[in-house]
Amino acid sequence: MLFYCCAFLYWELLLRAFDQDSVFLTAALPRIVLFSLAAGTAVFVLLELIPWSKLSRTAGGLLLLSGSVYICTEYCCKSFFGNYFAVGYMGQMAEGVVGDFGGTMVEVIKNAIPFILLALIPFIAYMLIRTRFFRRALNMGKCRLIGMLLFVLFQLLGSALSVGGSSRNLYTYDFQTNTAIGEFGAFTSLRLELQYAVFGMPEPPLIQIEIPTDETPETTGDDLQNSESTDGVGDLDTPEVVYDYNKLPIDFEKLKQNADSSTLQAMHTYFGSLEASRQNQYTGLFEGKNLILITAEAFCPYLISQELTPTLYKLSTESFVFTNYYQPDWHQSTAGGEFAVLTGLIPTWQGSNVALKASAGVAMPYTLGWAFRGLGYATPAYHNNSYTYYDRHKTHPNFGYDYTAIGNGLVLETKNWPNSDFEMMKATVSGYIEDYLKTGKNFHTYYMTVSGHANYNWMGNLMALRNKETAQAAYPNSSEAVQAYIACNLELEYAMAYLLEQLEAAGIADDTVIALTTDHYPYGLIENGKDYYVELSGVQDTVNNISRYKNSLIIWCGAMEEPIVVDTPCSSIDIVPTLSNLFGISYDSRLYSGRDVFAQNDEPDRVSTSMPLVVLPIGNSYSWITEAGSYDAYTGIFTPNEGMQVSQNYVSTVSQLVSAKFTYAKQVLQQDYYSIIQKELK
Question: Over 60: is that where the pLDDT of 231 sits?
Answer without folding.
Answer: no
